[in-house]
Amino acid sequence: MKDEAQVIVIGAGPVGQSAALLLARWGIQVLVLDQRPGRARGGSKSICQQRDVLDIWAAAGAGKVAEEGLAWTTARTYHRDRELFSWTFEREGPLPACVNISQSRTEQILDEAIAAQPLIEVRWEHEVTGLTQDATGVTVRCGQRLLRAPYVLACAGARAQALRGALGVAFTGETYEDQFLICDIKADLPGWENERRFYFDPIWNPGRQVLIHPCPGGTYRIDWQIAPDFIPADADIARKIRQVVGDRPYELLWHSTYRFHSRVASRMRVGRVLLAGDCAHLVAPFGARGLNSGVPDAENAAWKLAFVLNGWAGEELLESYHAERHAAALENLEVTTATMRFLAPASVEERMRRRAALEGGRVAEVDSGRFAEPFWYADSPLTTPEPSRPFLGRPPKGALCPPAPGVILPDVLVPGGRLRQFTRDGFLVLLGDMCDSSLFVQVLGKVMRAPLAVRGLAEMDGTGSLAERLGAGPDEAWLIRPDSHIAAIIPHAGPEPVAAAMSRAIGGSPDM
C-alpha cells in the first residue's frame, strides 16, 4: 500500500473481509489486521447465507458464494418422528433465498476478491493491543508497532473483550448452559438434499433438539443439543451420527462443541471507531442471524465511512450507523431469545407450555427459529416517513416487508441485471411517469455532491411494468440509498421535497 490507510479494519473474518471489499469499492484504502498467523481451514461454522447478504457479496465481487452454495428451499420441523409443519421461502428476484456453504469456502472466495483489489492490504500476526483517538484519527498499537488511520472498523469477533473495554463498551447478556455438538459429514441421504430438518425431542436425542442442514458436495451439517457436562468421545459421536443416517456409509469431516451467547454492545460507534459483527453482537444461531447480520453491518459502515472520507457527507452521518445497526442487533436478540426460550425452557411453566405446544400440534406456538431477514430502518434519522406508506411491522415468518421508507428495495430483474445492482454506486432516484426527470437532475445535482442517478421507472424496464411490481404511483419519487434501502417515497413529488429527503439521508437537516 503506497499511501496511509484511510480505514483500518481489525479482523479478517467474513465481516472484516466484506468491509474491506466494500470500502475499496468506494475507492477507500484499507488495511486489514488479524492476530492469527494466517487463514485457518476446516469446519463449516457459519453456513446459511441469506439472499440479501448474497446480494451484498455480489456487489463486492464475491458472487461465487451464491453460485457455489447449495440453495435449499424447504424447512421441515418434527416432534419426535412426526412432522409438525414445513415452510418454503418466498421467491424474490434471481438470487436464491438462501444458500448453504461452509464458512471456510466463503472466506476463500472473499480472499480471492481481496487479492485482486490493490486498495486492500492484509497483515497477519498483528494483534491489536491498544487504541487511542484524537481529532484527526485513530492510533492502533500492535505490540511495539503503531499504525494510524482516520477511522477504524472493529470486526475482531466475539473474543474482543480488550478492544471493547478500551472503548468503554459494555457487552452484557447471557450464556446458555447447554452445549451443542456440531458435525460435518459426507453421506448419501436421498430426499434430504434440499431440505433443512429440525427435530424436537427425537428418540435419538430425548429432551433436546437436532438440526440437519444439507451442504454442497453431498455433505451435511448436524447440530445436537447436548447436556452442559457431556464430553463426547469418538464412540459417542459415531453413535449419534448412526442414529441419524442409519446403516448408510458416511465420512466424518469435522466436529466441535460450543455454547451459545446472547449479547449486544452498548455502543456500536465510539468516536472514530465502529464495531461490527460478533464484536458488536452475539445471538443464538437458530435463524442464521449471526453472519447474516454482520455483513449488513459492514455494508452500512462502508458506505457511510466512504461518504465522510470522500467529502460527500459530514461526520454526523456516522452516528446513524449506531442508530440503525444497534436497532438491528436488538431485533435479532429479541427474535433469537424467544427461540432459545422455546428450545431450552428455563422454568417449569415454560417447559409445560413447550410440551403442550409440541404434543398438541399447536403449530403457531412452536418456535424452531425465524430465518434472517434485512432489518427495516423505519425509525432511522436518515429515513423520511410517509404516512400513506407506513412500515407495517415485522412481517409474517418467511414473508417480505411491503415497500415503505426504511425497508430494503425489492430485488427484481430488469434489463441489464437486477434492480439492486443499479443502487450500489450512490443514491438512486426512481421517478414515476408523471415526473420530469430533467428537472430533477437539474435541481438535485446542485445539492448532492455524492454520486447520484435519476431514472424513470418506465425507463428502467422499457415497459412500465416495474412501477406495477413495486407498487409505485405515477407521481411518486423513490429515493434509494447505496445499501438498497428506501430512504423516502414521496407522493406528488417535486425536486425540493426529494432534495430535503436526500439531505436527511446523508445525515444533514431536511430543511434545505
UniProtKB/TrEMBL annotation:
Gene3D superfamilies xref list: 3.30.70.2450, 3.40.30.120, FAD/NAD(P)-binding domain
Annotated InterPro entries: FAD-bd, FAD/NAD-bd_sf, RIFMO-like
Cofactor(s) in the UniProt record: FAD
SUPFAM superfamilies: FAD/NAD(P)-binding domain
Occurrences of domain FAD-binding (ranges): 4-332
Keywords carried by this UniProt record: FAD, Flavoprotein, Monooxygenase, Oxidoreductase
Gene Ontology MF term list: FAD binding; oxidoreductase activity, acting on paired donors, with incorporation or reduction of molecular oxygen, NAD(P)H as one donor, and incorporation of one atom of oxygen
Keyword Cell cycle: no
Name the UniProt record assigns to this protein: Pentachlorophenol monooxygenase/3-(3-hydroxy-phenyl)propionate hydroxylase
UniProt source species: Nonomuraea fuscirosea
